[in-house]
Amino acid sequence: MSLTNSLTSQKYRKLSNEEIEDTENKLDQEEAVKAGLRNLIELCGDDPDREGLEETPDRVLKAFLEYTEGYREDPKSHLEKVFDVDHQELVMVQDIEIHSMCEHHFAPFFGVAHVGYIPNGKITGLSKIARMVDGYAKRFQVQERLTNQIADAMEEVLDPQGVMVVIEAKHMCMCGRGVRKSGASTTTKAVRGLFRDAADHRMEFLSLLDRPSR
Length: 214
Ligand SMILES: Nc1nc2c(ncn2[C@@H]2O[C@H](COP(=O)(O)OP(=O)(O)OP(=O)(O)O)[C@@H](O)[C@H]2O)c(=O)[nH]1
Ligand SMILES: [Zn+2]
Known about the structure:
alpha+beta; single chain; binds zinc ion; GTP Cyclohydrolase I, domain 2
């Protein structure tokens, strides 16, 4: 079959009963979420039909699907395009912006991730590390799990000699509500392989983070 014929037949392919049922379920769920959001607006004391709010349930639903894009991909697959390069020293990507969502309050937490690894014959594209971080950040998260998932993905795909991940973030659920400590920030770390076993590797990672330009 020619490429054009193949694309045309895919475009007009009849949906299976399962796909139709999935789509109908998704639409029902979306309507239920929007009805819930209207109730929430009312419960908070405003009118869901006033001009500024009438489209808000649609916007919030759309925004949530964006915040959680990471559920619809396998983040570690970004790392799978590897290059055979014999580099036996630390490779570190610093200050990767993260925007995630606290799973307890659905409030944003944001900051930076620093990902370092000592390769074992295989390296990956630097941008792919940032793409993988995004994939795990765009889920309902706690910072500790996010940190571990990033380290595990690096370990699983690249089989490096060691991995170290540090995340520094501010949690809006601690700033604008609750305990209201807007200056507080949280640092988490995950270490694997050589970084777990040898303090000098951890020190090297940390000394690069402490450079004066930070
Ligand atoms: N360990 C951890 N805790 C988090 C993270 N994000 C939010 N939290 C915390 O999750 C906890 C949830 O506590 P709960 O007592 O169940 O909820 P709450 O009554 O809203 O708590 P307050 O925030 O203290 O008002 C809070 O202490 C938050 O600060 C995270 O990434 N890691
Ligand atoms: Zn929270």
